[in-house]
Design goal:
The chain is of the alpha/beta class. It contains nine helices and eight strands.
Length: 212
């Protein structure tokens, strides 16, 4: 495992494909609200613009002392100096990303509902594993559902931070945390909130309450 440890527990905020001023305003709000990780997720954005946006987000993250993770694209992470990458089923393996990004990079892997994929990711040097969709997701409505029990089981077996993703809201987040989620990856419940900053702070408070 690599990188600073502060990111290992708390709200993991994901961008929603917004661009320009809205993207930076959303990022600023959730960082001020207490997100411990920010992921740049922009699957439909042209590559040149993705590099520009990732660079701007990295500067913002640096001011808040929060790591920036790039979704899918470790080459973009290398080009911008981002702190890590999140890899899915169709992406290169963690070892390839580690070689490109270095030992201190944060490398996360989507494991869906597959504990064997999580074991393989851990053996390959992943820094966290993610399971989901935990709940019905507006971002990926047809995604395979992952039982909450996977979170605690993976955490106990792998000794890695375990991230829950998919359909997470303030109403169901306590279930995921109680089941063993160290990180909660959230998109819509932040970006659709009237004010994403207090929404992020409410997520942070759930973790703080659990830890006291």
């Amino acid at each position: 495992m690599s990188g600073a440890r502060a990111w290992r527990r708390g709200l993991y905020a994901l961008t929603d494909g917004s661009s320009g001023a809205r993207l930076l305003a959303l990022a600023e709000a959730v960082l001020r609200g207490g997100a411990v990780l920010l992921q740049y997720r922009a699957k439909a954005t042209p590559r040149a613009l993705r590099r520009e946006e990732a660079t701007a987000l990295l500067a913002l993250c640096r001011r808040h002392g929060v790591p920036l993770v790039i979704n899918d694209d470790f080459e973009l992470a290398v080009a911008t100096g981002a702190d890590g990458v999140h890899l899915g089923r169709d992406d290169p393996p963690p070892a390839q990303a580690r070689e490109a990004l270095g030992e201190t990079a944060i490398i996360g892997v989507s494991c869906y509902a597959d504990p064997e994929r999580a074991r393989a990711a851990a053996a390959a040097g992943a820094d966290y594993v993610a399971f989901g969709s935990l709940f019905t997701s507006s971002t990926k409505p047809s995604a395979t559902r992952a039982p909450l029990e996977l979170l605690g089981a993976a955490g106990r077996e792998l000794d890695l931070p375990v991230c829950g993703i998919g359909g997470i809201t303030l109403a169901n987040a306590p279930q995921a945390i109680a089941a063993g989620a160290d990180l909660l990856a959230v998109i819509s419940d932040l970006t659709n909130a009237p004010d994403p900053g207090p929404q992020a702070a409410a997520y942070a408070a759930l973790f703080n309450a659990r830890d006291t």
